[in-house]
Design goal:
82 residues, alpha+beta, three-stranded mixed beta sheet, 2 helices, 3 strands
Length: 82
């Protein structure tokens, strides 16, 4: 399980509030809600935007929790495996 700091948890909550929404709309909302000292690129730490999303460790060293549906491009969340 990844270890997240308070800022990461806040960003995850912001992203989670947009689950099921089309990415083009969700992305704008997420970026507008980020803490002032955050760069918009930080969302890539949590969202797998590859054409074929899957479980992997990204360049931030974490497994992205969210991904875009292949055809609808709606924001979805991976369910953690136990």
């Amino acid at each position: 399980m990844s270890s997240f700091d308070d800022k990461d948890i806040l960003i995850i909550r912001i992203i989670r509030s947009q689950i099921g929404k089309r990415w083009i709309e969700a992305k704008e909302h997420i970026i507008n809600q980020l803490p002032e000292d955050s760069e918009p690129e930080i969302i890539d730490k949590f969202i797998d935007r590859r054409d074929e999303p899957g479980i992997y460790i990204n360049e931030y060293g974490v497994e992205p929790r969210f991904y875009l549906h292949r055809s609808s491009k709606r924001l979805l969340e991976f369910y953690p495996s136990k």
